[in-house]
Amino acid sequence: MQRSWLNLGVSFFLAAAPALILLRYYYRQDRERPEPKGLVIRIFLFGIVATFVAVPFELLMSLFQGLFADFPLLTALFKAFVVAALVEEYLKLTIVRLFAYRDRHFDEIMDGVVYTVVASLGFACMENILYVMGGTIGTALTRAVTAIPLHATASGLMGYYIGRAKFADSPRRERALINKGLRIAIFVHGTYDFLLFSVPVLGSWPLVGLLPLLIGSFFILRSRIRMALEEDRRREQFEQII
Asked: Considering the entire predicted model, what is its pTM?
């Protein structure tokens, strides 16, 4: 009994720790003008709640998988991009739009990255706990270096465009930027899931694409973060001049 509780505790720690470590990393990217911790914690908690909200929506969308019953690769494609990526990324977007976007502290492009990553890591943290509680320590370690970073980078890329949308010069441009960010997040997230879901059909070779996807999306997000910080500095300098 003592050993089982120990294993449970280790699994829980391994499930939650990667999300908290990444949360600290991305939060510190905006160290010049950090976001209020109270709001960050609330967005993280809303991300956790979104994990449970996603379940009925994903079950509903799964009903349409029967349309592709004779085409297993199309089933994997639908499950990856619609059932998982569309539902989950749209929920993260909704959290940011409802609880951070109109807040007075959302005053930089970089804030879009921070709040969206925070929402995604709340979601990923709870999702990982649910997976690991029914799995093994190996599951925890695997997801720590794959699924959790994937959630952060896919949503972080969306967050960059949400941040730009906040300062768009027209409602039309604002909507276009938000939609672009959502499409990018769905593409990255859906590609990751498709590589996994297609294994029963195509064999293990799709797994080769996981590492390039994770590394590539991470460095693209790093580039977007540098761009956001630079744009924010220029805007601040301009506002000081006028």
From this structure: 0.92
